[in-house]
Specification:
Structural class: alpha+beta
Oligomer: single chain
Radius of gyration: 19 Å
Strand order of the largest sheet: 8-1-2-11-10-9
Largest sheet: 6 strands, mixed
Distance between the termini: 57 Å
Strand content: 35-45%
Number of helices: 4
């Protein structure tokens, strides 16, 4: 009996606290704001390339690209978030992310104004998303990082597109 008690006491608890948002984040720009997404969700960062437009898709879906033989949808994150459209520049790029849908993983390219850096954030650097009042739902926000007097908006990339939108994009590729 004493051996079991000792073994239980020394076994680390593996359950992860959902509020533990510490880790490495890729920080990128949309206008003057800085956003971040978990580095583990990022597949690659590439410059803009030819995007094949697809009819009857939402205005923020720019189309699809061929990524080493795989067709992936491309979303302009600026338009998805309701920001005004801007001319693409030499710094504009596509971040290819892996997003999780109920039954499958889907790769999506997101167009951003530019990539800034990779930050290693501690839990103490991240605050909960403030309450924006009734009727404002923000499930895609993981929290707000406070770094050097600036706020960086941390995104849950799996929630940036709703399940219905992901289903639509997944169907588009089939």
């Amino acid at each position: 009996m004493q051996t079991n008690t000792h073994a239980q006491a020394s076994t680390p608890v593996i359950a992860q606290d959902p509020h533990d948002r510490a880790g490495k984040y890729l920080i990128f720009h949309l206008g003057t704001e800085e956003f971040g997404t978990e580095v583990l969700k990022v597949r690659e960062i590439m410059g803009l390339q030819d995007i094949t437009t697809v009819p009857q898709t939402p205005h923020y879906v720019k189309g699809v690209i061929n990524l080493r033989g795989k067709v992936i949808p491309v979303v302009d994150l600026r338009l998805k978030f309701g920001l005004p459209s801007e001319e693409y520049t030499a710094r504009t790029c596509i971040i290819v992310v892996r997003t999780r849908q109920v039954e499958e993983e889907l790769m999506i390219g997101i167009i951003v104004d530019g990539v800034a850096e990779v930050l290693n954030l501690a839990s103490a650097d991240i605050e909960d998303t403030p309450d924006f009042g009734p009727g404002v739902v923000t499930p895609y926000l993981k929290g707000m990082a406070k770094i050097k007097g600036k706020v960086k908006i941390l995104l849950d990339i799996d929630q940036v597109l709703s399940s219905n939108e992901l289903n639509g994009l997944s169907a588009l590729l089939q």
